[in-house]
């Protein structure tokens, strides 16, 4: 019953967000046909384009046409590119997913060992310095870090390419830039959970009964990572829905960059498609996180049923 309720909430959220996004964009002042052709275009050309784009239909007709298209996976054609919106989104989706996976791997591979290493340090002064560095990582603006990293590692040292060049190696630097603030957040969070978990009675019991340090660390890590699962979901949402600033700096043709282009050109079908896409991704990831969380910690499911 818990999973059915979650599924129904997810479907209703997708419908509601899609409808709201359609309504908001319809209320934006101005004529998309005029924006495409320019202010110097003739009234006849504007009228012809409005008819070809379906803008001459009533609001209710456009809403039902859009809703039917969404169910069939058809968001119409982009005003700017003249291609199906779904194709434009799907063309950029693999690259965005690639960035998300690489970034999450970097964050987890660095933050988990780093949390244990910091936790083992006994000297208070060293811990304070490390806490300051972690706070610095969290607070560094991504646009500044991206520009400095590109200038240092791509222009001066030439370790990486300047911008994206259709290779995985050209994604390493952008992913590191995206990962640095998240490493700070994850390390701080896991370290705090480790401090709490180490004081639990079951740890003392296992230690007294001769459980090896490796297995003891696995128990501690498992219970310390459970509260971090929602953070992984939040980071995944940010990455898949488009890291706009980093994509602009490194010229990565991802979802975020496509959204900027759509907004600048007032490409309503593309904007609606992207809003719907990001909304669906957000809701599905939240649904997945709830399911994983309830499996890892069954108490969550039993409390809400």
TrEMBL record:
Sequence similarity: Belongs to the binding-protein-dependent transport system permease family.
A Pfam family it matches: BPD_transp_1_N
GO cellular component: plasma membrane
Organism of provenance: Candidatus Fusobacterium pullicola
The name this protein goes by in its record: ABC transporter permease
Bilayer-crossing regions: 7-25, 95-117, 129-156, 168-190, 228-250, 270-296
GO annotation, biological process: transmembrane transport
Keyword Transmembrane in annotation: yes
Topology of this chain in the membrane: Multi-pass membrane protein
Superkingdom field: Bacteria
UniProt keyword annotations, A-Z: Cell membrane, Membrane, Transmembrane, Transmembrane helix, Transport
Domain ABC transmembrane type-1 span(s) in chain numbering: 93-293
Compartment(s) where it occurs, according to its Swiss-Prot or TrEMBL record: Cell membrane
